């Protein structure tokens, strides 16, 4: 069992490293090709994109992986997930379509960002399809296929961006930001095509579309919703925080102060956070592997295998997080120069390095809480961290300026991670007492 876990973890790590390398090439490409204004527009629209996608997905992809892992008939949860996703996507897209002008003019106070926001519309159903396919693959223990799809996603994005920026080198800032947003849709399309072909080749999915929903029962929907709703709550709070942050940070500030905060926001989200959260590519992949695998063994009373799986993955995540923090602390200027050809934000990267070593533990801790049916606890933990983050930005922006962003982000992350750890500690203590 130990050799199997280590071998599976090793293969997932290799695929994740390659996928992250491609993902970072995308970020480097955007950082070097987008102008400062284009990066600001793209960062502002990205917060809205994350919020809309969270609403549309309803936490179904991750819930699907758990429900399928503990089910003897994986097709029924899949059908229920498809039906729920179609309904939520139609509602969210219609509401978002009418809300876009209001969001650009009133909420974000950037009328020029309209084309970038409209580019999010096709992304919503595409990401939902990709998420369902990935959740299904994880649920039936096809972890390699679910992880390998990231290679096609990032690779296709790189090719698309290279072709576009080569053909149209003199685009304005808004058009560049819009194409950067469209590139996400391109990547998700190729990722979905790969996963669908992988499933069809193995003949593991139903092909008779007219008969897709005829055998569904209410309990099939309840199984998915019982897990997805708490997951949605947790993710919705996080994405809502990300959505509200740029709004709160400029509230009550002068035009000059607002522009300084927007520039800092683009720098933090466009340059610093991608580097300091680099371990997330691995920790999220391992967490996606942990949730269905732990559930599979735990529901079949294989406690020893389940606990071994958890400790192995948590240890790997901790080592990766510490390694990244060490590199960011001692080589902050070199990293920024290497990836972005600038030293801007080097001191901030150094200051945030050590606290963010714990960020690598957040995904596996969250997955364990979901696996132990403690999903509702993750909602309150995420809410506490988000309130701390928004509170710091809201009350400190006028006093210390852009530094409020780093303080809020760090404090919110630490609160959520530590609360997850304490809840899991007491849950294990209660289970084995």
TrEMBL record:
Keyword match Ligase: no
Superkingdom to which the source organism belongs: Bacteria
Cellular location(s): Cell membrane
InterPro entries: Poly_Biosynth_Transport, Polysacc_synth
Keywords: Cell membrane, Membrane, Transmembrane, Transmembrane helix
Chief localization: membrane
Listed Pfam families: Polysacc_synt
Topological relation to the membrane, as annotated: Multi-pass membrane protein
Transmembrane annotation, as ranges: 9-29, 41-60, 81-104, 116-139, 176-197, 236-256, 268-291, 312-332, 352-372, 403-426
UniProt-recorded name of the protein: Oligosaccharide flippase family protein
Source species taxonomy: Bacteria, Bacillati, Bacillota, Erysipelotrichia, Erysipelotrichales
């Amino acid at each position: 069992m130990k050799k199997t876990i280590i071998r599976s973890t090793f293969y997932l790590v290799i695929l994740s490293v390659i996928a992250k390398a491609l993902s970072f090439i995308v970020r480097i490409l955007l950082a070097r090709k987008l102008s400062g204004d284009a990066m600001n527009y793209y960062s502002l629209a990205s917060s809205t994109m994350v919020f809309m996608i969270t609403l549309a997905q309803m936490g179904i992809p991750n819930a699907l992986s758990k429900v399928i892992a503990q089910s003897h008939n994986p097709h029924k949860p899949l059908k229920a997930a498809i039906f729920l996703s179609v309904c939520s996507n139609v509602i969210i897209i219609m509401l978002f379509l009418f809300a876009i002008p209001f969001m650009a003019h009133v909420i974000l106070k950037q009328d020029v960002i309209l084309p970038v926001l409209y580019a999010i519309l096709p992304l919503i159903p595409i990401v939902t399809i990709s998420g369902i396919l990935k959740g299904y693959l994880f649920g039936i223990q096809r972890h390699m296929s679910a992880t390998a799809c990231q290679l096609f996603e990032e690779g296709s994005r790189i090719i698309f961006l290279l072709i576009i920026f080569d053909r149209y080198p003199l685009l304005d800032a808004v058009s560049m930001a819009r194409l950067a947003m469209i590139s996400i849709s391109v990547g998700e399309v190729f990722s979905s095509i790969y996963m669908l072909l992988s499933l069809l080749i193995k003949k593991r999915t139903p092909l008779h579309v007219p008969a897709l929903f005829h055998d569904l029962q209410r309990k099939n929907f309840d199984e998915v919703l019982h897990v997805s709703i708490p997951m949605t709550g947790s993710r919705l709070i996080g994405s809502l925080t990300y959505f509200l942050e740029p709004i709160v940070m400029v509230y009550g500030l002068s035009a000059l102060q607002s522009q300084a905060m927007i520039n800092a926001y683009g720098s933090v989200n466009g340059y610093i956070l991608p580097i300091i959260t680099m371990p997330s590519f691995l920790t999220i992949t391992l967490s996606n592997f942990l949730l269905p695998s732990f559930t599979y063994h735990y529901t079949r009373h294989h406690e020893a295998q389940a606990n071994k799986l958890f400790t192995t993955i948590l240890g790997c995540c901790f080592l990766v997080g510490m390694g990244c923090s060490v590199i960011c602390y001692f080589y902050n200027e070199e990293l920024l120069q290497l990836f972005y050809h600038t030293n801007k934000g080097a001191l901030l990267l150094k200051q945030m390095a050590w606290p963010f070593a714990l960020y690598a533990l957040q995904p596996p801790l969250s997955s364990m809480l979901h696996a132990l049916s403690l999903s509702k606890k993750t909602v309150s933990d995420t809410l506490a961290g988000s309130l701390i983050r928004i509170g710091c930005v809201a009350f400190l922006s006028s006093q210390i300026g852009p530094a409020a962003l780093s303080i809020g982000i760090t404090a919110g992350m630490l609160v959520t991670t530590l609360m997850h750890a304490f809840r899991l500690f007491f849950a294990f203590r209660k289970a084995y007492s």
